[in-house]
């Protein structure tokens, strides 16, 4: 409590992007999900979507960098979904940065 924490580490994200680009089939969706951060202001429930107030923060700078390094092409994008679908997808994915 009352201790600042880093919400997004751009250096670590760049390392993850470079690592993903070395793969035969880069997973764009996995990288896009790393650009999303959910913050619950009242943690009264165990499920994020059941909490009374929460926000989903999209790091557009990281998304833009990702777009320049890994063009969308035929890869399905997380951002083409509706916001609710996006929230469920983020909540259900087990992505570790």
UniProtKB/TrEMBL annotation:
GO terms for biological process: post-embryonic development; regulation of developmental process; regulation of DNA-templated transcription; regulation of multicellular organismal process. Pfam families: MH2. InterPro entries: SMAD-like_dom_sf, SMAD_dom_Dwarfin-type, SMAD_FHA_dom_sf. Residues 1-85 form the MH2 domain. PANTHER family: EXPANSION, ISOFORM A-RELATED. This is MH2 domain-containing protein. It comes from Cryptotermes secundus.
